[in-house]
Structure formats: structure tokens, C-alpha cells
């Protein structure tokens, strides 16, 4: 009997790079379509990570959702030529505080060093409904196989809803700027991330960390008189607040007058709140959840920061992989991959209604 799905790639590191971005949960839902594989992980229905492995990443991609003699009832949506199932990591999940490099997720546990070195072939295979998801890495005739337990997904599982027809904020910038800002705010150990954006008043776009044991800190993405600003950082104290501006050469100067109504570091800056919100968009999120996207921020080239009218935040990362290097590593922010594939990783976050919700969540985590 032919397997339901077989995908072969000559570069295992491509898969590892994308799947490690969403490595914050012990379970994942896998959807296999004619266009590629969609891995989805979530936690408490307040954060969701999505990684799409495009068909172009594979040298061979065979999808057969209705194998002869197989169980036709539960394989997935045959009309749409899809297979849907869940995978589970039986090892104990590490519940420690996340760092900038998240724990490896179950879908990428087979891709550990040194198996990511040069010219490694990787085969993903799902034989039939209920079979394990097999991940085999081959080099010089030596084959290493990892099998991940699969399960029938809960019918209540659903994506964190992003209203694409009601987007009120869209900001595109280099992912490195967002990563640096979150890392700077993280030093004060905040519990809340505050996002503020306005189309015609400064600060046009700012991120603040609040609720932690230290004073609130703020990073502003601004404009200076020489159009060379990469970010402004200010740490507020009880008596006063101070601000500094970081330039591209790493030096700092006092905050200068803006020369246009969009931060210099942004490629796209669209802010259009409804009248009920006023001129400025303000939303709060659990900082610990946003921190889980740090790996994606680090490897991506660009990020699209979107918010809908309900406050759902989407961080969509564009990852350009380098096919010219044996490891297939990301090429780095702002550098165009010479013919390498472009892939996307998406994180979605449900907003906090108020700071009391964040305090309650913190007490629950401590208990």
C-alpha cells in the first residue's frame, strides 16, 4: 500500500529553521495539502504559532490522501486533497522560563546537531491514518529515523481568529529591529507588552514593558533629522523619564524632531483606528507569550506587524533561506537570498482586556 504522504528534501536545515521557530509546545497539528505542510501549535488558546513548509522545499513531494485499503473516514478532507492529524512529544515538556532560543518543538526533535551538517537528506512520511509521522535523515548510507506519535485532532481546535478584512494596523520592518526591542524590554522582566501606534502624533510606534519588578521601559521607533534612527529607548522612573536615540553606527543622541509621520525603520506604516478608539491604537499582551516568538524574530528578514479591530496581534515573519550554503541557514536580516526559498512563520496573540487580567495570569503561573 502506498503511503499517504512522502516528502524528501536534500536540506534538513531548512525544515529545522522553520519548525524551531514555533517550538514552544509539546503538541502540534499538521495539515498536509498539495501546496505544502502546515504546522500549528497553540497554548491556552491565547497564542498560536504557524509554520508553512512550502512544497518547493522538497525535491520529491507525493500526496495520496486516499491510499488503497486505507481508512477513508478519518484521513482528512479528501475533497480538498488534505490530510490533517496531530503529533505529540512523549518526552516531558520543559516548563522553565523561555529564553531567546526556545525549546525544540516535537516536529523538529529529529533535527538535532550534528545531523544538521552538510548535505543531509531528510524524508517525512505518513503511511496511513494513525501511523506515526516518520522523520528519516540519511547520509552516506547511514539512516537515522525518528517516529512521532500521532493522534486525532480535537474537533474544537481552531486558529486564533485574525479578521483580515478589519486590519487597523500594518507595520512592515526588518525583524532585527523588533528582536532588539523585545530583548531590551525583557531586561526589566515585564509581564505586559504595551503596543502604541499613531499615524500623526509622536511617538508613532512604541513598545513598552510594564508590570514587572522594575520601572516601565519603552522603545520608540522614531524619525530623526538625518533619517538614520533605528530606535529610541527610554526607561521611565517614578520621578522622570529619559529617552535616547540609537543611530545606525551605534552612537546615541538626544531625541530629535521628526521629519515625517512614519518611523524611519519601517517599510510600511499604516495605522487607521476606528473613531471609537481615537487617533492612537493601544493594546496590551502578555509579554511571556510574545517572548515565545523570539526565535522567529532572530532568523527572519522582515516582519509584518498586524492588528485587527478586536485587538488580535499577528507577527508574520518572512524567512529567506540560503540554498547556496551547505547548511541552508537563514541569510540574515536585510540580505537577499541568492535564489533561496522564501518561507513564512506566523504568530497570533489574543490581547489582554486590562492590566488586572495580566496580574491574574501572573498569579496563576506562580501557583
Automatic annotation (TrEMBL):
GO biological process, one term: DNA repair
Predominant cellular place of this UniProt entry's protein: nucleus
Compartments reported by the entry: Nucleus
InterPro entries in the cross-refs: Rad1_Rec1_Rad17 (IPR003021)
Chain segments carrying region Disordered: 233-262
Any Pfam family hit: Rad1
Biased composition (Polar residues): 235-262
UniProt KW keywords: DNA damage, DNA repair, Nucleus
GO annotations of cellular component type: checkpoint clamp complex
Family indicated by similarity: Belongs to the rad1 family.
UniProt name for this protein: DNA repair protein Rad1
Amino acid at each position: 500500500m502506498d503511503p499517504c504522504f512522502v516528502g524528501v528534501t536534500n536540506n534538513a536545515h531548512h525544515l529545522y529553521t522553520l519548525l524551531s521557530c514555533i517550538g514552544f509546545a509539546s503538541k502540534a497539528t499538521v495539515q498536509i495539502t498539495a501546496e505544502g505542510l502546515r504546522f500549528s501549535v497553540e497554548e491556552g488558546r491565547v497564542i498560536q504559532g504557524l509554520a508553512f513548509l512550502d512544497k518547493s522545499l522538497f525535491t520529491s513531494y507525493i500526496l495520496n490522501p486516499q491510499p488503497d485499503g486505507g481508512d477513508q473516514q478519518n484521513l482528512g478532507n479528501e475533497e480538498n486533497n488534505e490530510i490533517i492529524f496531530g503529533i505529540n512529544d512523549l518526552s516531558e515538556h520543559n516548563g522553565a522560563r523561555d529564553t531567546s532560543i526556545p525549546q525544540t518543538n516535537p516536529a523538529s526533535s529529529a533535527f538535532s546537531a550534528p545531523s544538521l551538517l552538510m548535505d543531509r537528506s531528510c524524508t517525512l512520511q505518513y503511511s496511513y491514518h494513525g501511523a506515526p509521522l516518520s522523520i528519516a535523515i540519511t547520509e552516506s548510507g547511514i539512516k537515522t529515523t525518528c517516529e512521532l506519535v500521532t493522534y486525532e485532532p480535537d474537533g474544537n481546535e481552531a486558529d486564533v481568529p485574525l479578521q483580515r478584512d478589519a486590519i487597523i494596523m500594518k507595520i512592515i520592518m526588518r525583524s532585527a529591529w523588533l528582536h532588539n526591542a523585545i530583548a531590551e524590554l525583557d531586561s526589566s522582566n515585564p509581564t505586559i507588552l504595551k503596543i502604541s501606534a499613531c499615524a500623526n502624533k509622536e511617538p508613532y510606534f512604541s513598545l513598552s514593558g510594564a508590570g514587572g519588578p522594575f520601572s516601565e521601559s519603552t522603545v520608540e521607533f522614531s524619525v530623526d533629522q538625518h533619517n538614520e534612527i533605528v530606535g529610541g529607548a527610554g526607561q521611565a522612573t517614578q520621578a522622570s523619564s529619559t529617552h535616547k536615540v540609537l543611530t545606525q553606527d551605534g552612537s546615541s543622541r538626544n531625541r530629535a524632531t521628526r521629519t515625517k509621520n512614519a518611523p524611519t525603520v519601517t517599510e510600511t506604516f499604516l495605522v487607521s483606528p476606528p473613531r471609537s478608539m481615537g487617533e492612537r491604537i493601544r493594546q496590551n499582551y502578555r509579554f511571556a507569550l510574545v517572548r515565545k516568538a523570539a526565535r522567529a524574530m532572530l532568523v527572519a528578514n522582515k516582519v509584518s506587524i498586524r492588528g485587527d479591530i478586536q485587538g488580535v496581534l499577528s507577527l508574520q515573519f518572512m524567512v529567506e533561506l540560503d540554498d547556496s550554503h551547505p547548511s541552508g541557514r537563514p541569510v540574515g536580516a536585510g540580505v537577499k537570498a541568492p535564489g533561496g526559498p522564501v518561507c513564512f512563520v506566523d504568530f497570533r496573540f489574543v490581547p489582554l482586556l486590562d492590566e488586572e487580567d495580566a496580574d491574574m495570569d501572573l498569579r496563576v503561573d506562580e501557583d
